[in-house]
Amino acid sequence: MDKKVSVFRFAASTLLPCAVLAAAMVIATSGGAQAGNPNPGILPPDSHAFGQTYGEWAADWWTWVINEAGAPLKDATGADCGLGQSGPVWFLAGSWIGPVERECAVPAGRALFFPIQNIAFLGYEDDPWPYYPYADEADARAGLAAANDASAGRSATIDGAPVADLDLYRVTTPVFSAVWPGWQTLYPNVDDGWYLLLAPLSAGEHDISFTGWDGGQDIVYHLTVAGE
């Protein structure tokens, strides 16, 4: 029997239906790295911040989303902002439900990591390649990159200041594993996308916005960062 896939556009206003029968998932959201850093306050895309590369943090971002059964992407208000969050890096999410405006309290001293636009291939554990429509990992990575390349409309602002040269922040993840609660382990998984890693913000109020997927992704965060 041919393997099937599900395709979800997390960044779009609607969820594209497609049955999962026996193989893999391809998931798209909001959402990247090369050399250089024109944006003060954003850690360089070639950095090794908090012990990991941008690509490794992107894998952890997906692991967080998947382990929480996609709840951060279905959050309409920011009520789930702290769900599953720990450690020095705090994740912000895209949206499964179209444009959203969220209010979120962030502990002091946390870096912020989030995708402007991203897309991931998620496999079934112990189910060998090929996964339709990809022959192998390299083919999957090429397919994800092509999907991202075919889109436009990416932007981000931090407290009203536009982020420059977003293409510097495009990354791919290593192969990673995650568990969808009540279902199964997803592996092998890979991602391609644009991500930002912000140094910890000062205490007080901050606004972060980002768009992608030809305008289908449109997220605003109103953050309150706690004092030390």
List the helices and strands and how they pair.
Blueprint: E1 5-9, E2 24-30, H1 54-67, E3 89-91, E4 100-106, E5 111-124, H2 137-149, E6 155-158, E7 161-162, E8 170-172, E9 176-179, E10 185-198, E11 204-212, E12 217-225
Parallel strand pairs: 1-2, 3-5, 4-12
Antiparallel strand pairs: 2-5, 5-10, 6-7, 6-11, 8-10, 9-10, 11-12
Structural notes for this entry:
The structure is a single chain. With 228 residues, the protein is mainly beta. The chain has 2 helices and 12 strands, in the order E-E-H-E-E-E-H-E-E-E-E-E-E-E. Strands 1, 2, 3, 5, 8, 9 and 10 form a 7-stranded mixed sheet that branches. The protein starts with a strand and ends with a strand. The model is unreliable at 1-25 and 27-35 (pLDDT under 50).
